[in-house]
Amino acid sequence: MSKKNKIKYYVVWVGQNPGIYDNWKDCQLQVAGFPNAQYKSFKSLEAAQLAFNESAKEHIIKQKGPRKSKPTYLDFAEEIIADSISVDAACSSSTKLMEYQGVDTMTKEEIFKMGPFQGGTNNVGEFLALVHALAYLKKNNDTQKVVYSDSRTAMAWVRNKFVKTTMKQTASNKILFDLIKRGESWLKNNDYKTKILKWDTERWGEIPADFGRK
Predict the structure, then answer these.
(1) pLDDT in tens, 50-106
(2) Considering only CA atoms, which of 201, 212, 182, 186 is closest in space to residue 76?
(3) Rounded to whole angstroms, how far apart are CA atoms 71 and 142?
(4) Which of 175-189 are b and which e, b meaning 16 or more Cβ less than 10 Å from the residue's Cβ?
C-alpha cells in the first residue's frame, strides 16, 4: 500500500461529536476551537475502537506526560489551513545530497518527493519544492489549496521568478541548474491563484514536510 493510500483513524473523546473518524478533516471539525478537546490518531480501526472504549487518560495524558517545550502543529490546528500542501527540503552537509518533498499538511501523506540530487543547497531545494507544488496544483485544477513553506528566501525567489543563488555549477549538479531554469521559466509563463504562506515554525513547530534530520 502506498503512502497516499494509508488511512489513519482519529478518536475524539471530547469534542463536538465524540467518535471515530477516518480522516483528519472530519476530526478537525469536531475539535477545532472546542475547549479542552481530547483526540488522537491511530493506525488501525481496531486500535481506535479499543481506545474509544477506554479513557482518554490512557492514551493522551499518561503517554504525553509533561507538555513538551516545543509545540506540534496539531496544537494549532484552528490556525492552520487544513486544505494545504507543506513543502520542505533537506541537504546533508557531509554528502552534499539534497532532496525535497511536498506532503498533505494535516496527515503528512507524501504528495511528491524528488532527489537526492548531488551538489545542491537547502534554499534551492525549497525553491524547487514550491514550484513543484504550484505546478502540481495547477495541473490538477486545484485553486483552493494553499502552500506552506518555512523558507523566506525560496518564497522571495518565487515572487521574483528568479533564483539568486551562490551555488556553483559543476558536472555533478548540472541537473539542478536545469531544474532551476525550468522553474523560473514556469513561473514566468504561468499564472496561478495558489497562495504561498509562511509556516510559523517558532509557534507551530517544524513544518510537516520536514525530513526530521536536525
Answers:
(1) 889 888 888 874 444 444 455 677 778 788 999 999 999 999 888 889 999 999 998
(2) 201
(3) 30
(4) ebbebbeebbebbee
d(CA 188, CA 139): 16
Beta pairing partners, 88: 101
Cβ density class 124-144: b for 16+ within 10 Å, e for less: bbbbbbbbbbbbbbbeeeeee
Residues 147/195, Cβ–Cβ less than 8 Å: yes
- Rounded CA separation 86/125 (Å): 13
Cα-Cα-Cα-Cα dihedral sign, residues 139, 187, 4, 118: positive
Say which residue the cell 513544518 belongs to: 207
Q: What residues have CB less than 8 Å from 192, skipping those under 6 apart?
A: 134, 137, 138
**Is 124:174 a contact under the CB 8 Å cutoff?**
no
CB 57 within 8 A of CB 36: no
- C-alpha cell belonging to residue 209: 514536510
Coil, helix or strand at residue 62: helix
Its pTM stands at 0.68
Grid coordinates belonging to 86: 507543506
